[in-house]
Amino acid sequence: MNLSSFARAILCLFISVGQAVAQPPDNFRDASSEQLFFNARIITGDGAVIEQGSVLVRGDTILAVGSTSSIDTSQHAIRHDLSGKTIIPALVNTHAHLGWEAYGDWGSQFFTAENLADHLFRHAFYGVGTIISTGSDKEELAALVKLEQLKGNIGGARYHLSPGMGTPGGGPNPRFTDDPDYWGVHPVADPEQAVRTVKELAANGYGIAKIWVDSRDERRGAQVKLAPEIYTAVLETASSYDMRIIAHATTLADHKSLVNLGNRRFIHMPYDREVDDEYLEMIRENNVYIVPTLGMITKREPYYIPAFQDPFFYDQVPASVLESLNDNYNPPPADQSAAAEQRSAMLARNLAKLKDHIILGTDAGAVGDFFGYADHVELELFVRMGMSPAEAIVASTSRSAEAFGLNSVGSLKAGKAADFMILDANPLDDIRNTRQIIDVYLRGKRVDREALKQQWSQ
């Protein structure tokens, strides 16, 4: 990818100056140091639980996971006694929109290297170790930030990019497309252009891409809804390049069509009607992954709690942000209509039926939800709508990583990345216990959450 001298200059300035603020101090001694986290309950992310277990880490990698009595380590290892605590993998968020949110404002003018890095740390603060930003990034600048993170110059959650393809005039929700300076998606008006675009993205090193299949496009200037012959060309070409496609689709008919033509990943579950046996069989046979984005569709539910009323959110933003959110808040009705109750029940039934295919994604940065915080809200909604806490954790860690071939993250096993949360309570008892964060470790390094909180709350 050819990068403009202007973009390079901006990023260099950010790294030399801005990173001093955004990057918490590194407390890890050196790459060869070992750390032993012992006597903890270990929820590995794949459904297994080890009581009185240990995690042995060297540098940024897990060396061993098992019962405390079974793990040998050197006498020089740094030892952390976690009696009564729980370790879970860092969360893997497969759908958010980084760069636009300014915590008190929003727009394309905030898509800067410094703001991207801030969003990576906001995810890390809440124990999100990996984030896929889908279809709204300014790709040249985003690629630079990702490269500098790979070099070790930027910390926070691991940053993955997913460029977007859609019909001309379509793509993200109007909040993006109404911005006069929005750079747009990659237009795919016909199968030939779809093939060329996928090849170009693959040549630029992208392994994940998003497509929009949504009738709302026709109502806001797109020429046509993305047609099956176009997304067939996308899916077939992507398969040749080992590129994983995730499709934005919200209707049962579009889900069925996309699965039939080879799509395996979805942003949004069917919202328009109850899923049927045919669809359930299709997703089982094809090992389909689905991001339900429950936080987006439950804001009018009576149980909804806005972020500015939640201590888990409001103690790490300035009072001015809370005041702005409060001033602009339109609360849900105290009583739902019969139609709204029926729809809520239908969506809960859909989630329960699809639970073995669910992965984590929040849409944060696009729909008024906030990075990292929204992930824990989504976990709670998984459980509220029919999943067990254990199922919700698997969905948000190992299965999310598996869906995109992110083989180094998502579970606590030897050889995996040392990305995990230490909790003060057991989330298998109550999923809200994922909020009881004592520490977050990413790449084997402790995230300085207190320093970040002080920085953000001023």
TrEMBL record:
Residues 86-447 form the Amidohydrolase-related domain. Residues 1-22 form the signal peptide. Keywords: Signal. It comes from the Bacteria. Pfam families: Amidohydro_1. GO terms for molecular function: hydrolase activity, acting on carbon-nitrogen (but not peptide) bonds. Transmembrane segments: none annotated. This is Amidohydrolase-related domain-containing protein. The lineage of its organism: Bacteria, Pseudomonadati, Pseudomonadota, Gammaproteobacteria, SAR86 cluster.
